[in-house]
Design brief:
mainly beta; five-stranded mixed sheet; four-stranded mixed sheet; 1 helix
Length: 131
Amino acid sequence: MNRRWVFLLILIVAISGCTGKDADSEQTNTGLNSAPTPMQTNAKAFPVEPLTVYATIKGTMFNPPELNITNGTTVRWTNLDSVEYSLNVSGYQSPPLNKKDTWKFTFNKTGIYEYGCDSHPSMPHGRITVI
Protein backbone atom coordinates (compact mmCIF):
# COMPACT_ATOMS: atom_id res chain seq x y z
CA MET A 1 0.00 0.00 0.00
CA ASN A 2 2.82 2.35 0.82
CA ARG A 3 4.15 1.86 -2.68
CA ARG A 4 0.86 3.06 -4.23
CA TRP A 5 0.95 6.32 -2.25
CA VAL A 6 4.49 7.06 -3.36
CA PHE A 7 3.54 6.33 -6.98
CA LEU A 8 0.43 8.52 -6.68
CA LEU A 9 2.44 11.34 -5.09
CA ILE A 10 5.04 11.18 -7.91
CA LEU A 11 2.25 11.17 -10.48
CA ILE A 12 0.61 14.28 -8.92
CA VAL A 13 3.91 16.16 -8.81
CA ALA A 14 4.65 15.26 -12.44
CA ILE A 15 1.21 16.33 -13.62
CA SER A 16 1.32 19.63 -11.71
CA GLY A 17 4.51 20.57 -13.57
CA CYS A 18 2.72 20.23 -16.93
CA THR A 19 0.12 22.98 -16.47
CA GLY A 20 1.89 25.42 -18.81
CA LYS A 21 2.29 28.11 -16.17
CA ASP A 22 5.63 29.00 -14.81
CA ALA A 23 5.73 29.66 -11.11
CA ASP A 24 8.19 32.52 -11.71
CA SER A 25 6.37 34.16 -14.63
CA GLU A 26 3.55 36.62 -14.16
CA GLN A 27 0.66 37.10 -16.58
CA THR A 28 -0.03 40.75 -17.50
CA ASN A 29 -2.92 42.35 -19.30
CA THR A 30 -1.72 44.00 -22.51
CA GLY A 31 -5.12 45.24 -23.64
CA LEU A 32 -5.89 48.65 -25.12
CA ASN A 33 -6.36 50.29 -21.74
CA SER A 34 -2.98 49.36 -20.32
CA ALA A 35 -0.32 52.05 -20.46
CA PRO A 36 3.12 51.13 -21.78
CA THR A 37 5.98 51.28 -19.35
CA PRO A 38 8.24 54.20 -20.25
CA MET A 39 11.77 53.25 -21.20
CA GLN A 40 14.61 54.68 -19.22
CA THR A 41 17.03 56.33 -21.62
CA ASN A 42 20.12 58.39 -21.30
CA ALA A 43 19.47 60.12 -24.63
CA LYS A 44 20.82 63.62 -24.99
CA ALA A 45 19.01 66.37 -26.84
CA PHE A 46 20.73 67.55 -29.98
CA PRO A 47 20.15 70.96 -31.55
CA VAL A 48 17.73 71.06 -34.44
CA GLU A 49 19.36 71.22 -37.84
CA PRO A 50 18.89 74.56 -39.58
CA LEU A 51 16.15 74.50 -42.18
CA THR A 52 16.83 75.27 -45.84
CA VAL A 53 14.06 76.33 -48.22
CA TYR A 54 14.64 76.19 -51.97
CA ALA A 55 13.55 78.75 -54.56
CA THR A 56 14.22 79.04 -58.26
CA ILE A 57 14.56 81.78 -60.85
CA LYS A 58 13.02 80.89 -64.21
CA GLY A 59 11.34 82.94 -66.90
CA THR A 60 12.33 86.17 -65.15
CA MET A 61 10.21 85.08 -62.14
CA PHE A 62 10.93 83.92 -58.61
CA ASN A 63 9.31 80.63 -57.69
CA PRO A 64 7.70 80.68 -55.23
CA PRO A 65 7.17 84.46 -55.26
CA GLU A 66 6.32 84.49 -51.53
CA LEU A 67 7.70 82.44 -48.66
CA ASN A 68 6.74 82.21 -44.99
CA ILE A 69 9.63 80.88 -42.93
CA THR A 70 10.82 80.73 -39.34
CA ASN A 71 13.71 82.67 -37.90
CA GLY A 72 17.06 81.01 -38.71
CA THR A 73 15.91 79.50 -42.01
CA THR A 74 18.18 79.65 -45.04
CA VAL A 75 16.71 80.32 -48.48
CA ARG A 76 18.69 78.96 -51.41
CA TRP A 77 17.96 80.34 -54.87
CA THR A 78 18.95 78.48 -58.06
CA ASN A 79 19.06 80.19 -61.45
CA LEU A 80 17.37 77.94 -64.02
CA ASP A 81 17.55 80.54 -66.82
CA SER A 82 20.31 81.21 -69.32
CA VAL A 83 20.25 84.88 -68.30
CA GLU A 84 22.44 86.18 -65.45
CA TYR A 85 20.71 87.45 -62.28
CA SER A 86 21.97 89.40 -59.26
CA LEU A 87 19.70 89.20 -56.21
CA ASN A 88 19.34 91.96 -53.67
CA VAL A 89 17.84 90.93 -50.32
CA SER A 90 17.53 93.89 -47.95
CA GLY A 91 20.86 95.34 -49.03
CA TYR A 92 22.68 92.00 -49.29
CA GLN A 93 23.83 91.40 -52.85
CA SER A 94 24.36 88.00 -54.40
CA PRO A 95 27.21 87.45 -56.83
CA PRO A 96 26.12 87.21 -60.48
CA LEU A 97 24.20 83.96 -60.88
CA ASN A 98 24.63 82.20 -64.20
CA LYS A 99 22.59 79.15 -65.23
CA LYS A 100 22.53 76.51 -62.44
CA ASP A 101 24.36 78.82 -60.00
CA THR A 102 22.99 79.04 -56.48
CA TRP A 103 23.08 81.60 -53.69
CA LYS A 104 21.83 81.26 -50.16
CA PHE A 105 20.89 83.70 -47.43
CA THR A 106 20.02 82.95 -43.80
CA PHE A 107 17.26 85.04 -42.23
CA ASN A 108 18.11 85.63 -38.58
CA LYS A 109 15.66 88.44 -37.82
CA THR A 110 11.88 88.42 -37.95
CA GLY A 111 10.23 90.73 -40.45
CA ILE A 112 9.13 91.07 -44.05
CA TYR A 113 11.85 91.08 -46.68
CA GLU A 114 11.27 92.25 -50.25
CA TYR A 115 13.88 91.11 -52.72
CA GLY A 116 14.54 91.58 -56.39
CA CYS A 117 17.08 91.42 -59.15
CA ASP A 118 19.40 94.37 -59.67
CA SER A 119 20.12 93.18 -63.23
CA HIS A 120 16.39 93.19 -64.10
CA PRO A 121 14.65 95.98 -62.14
CA SER A 122 11.33 95.37 -63.94
CA MET A 123 11.30 91.73 -62.75
CA PRO A 124 8.53 91.05 -60.19
CA HIS A 125 9.88 91.14 -56.67
CA GLY A 126 9.71 88.31 -54.17
CA ARG A 127 8.66 88.53 -50.54
CA ILE A 128 9.81 86.55 -47.54
CA THR A 129 8.01 86.76 -44.19
CA VAL A 130 10.13 85.60 -41.26
CA ILE A 131 8.30 84.72 -38.04
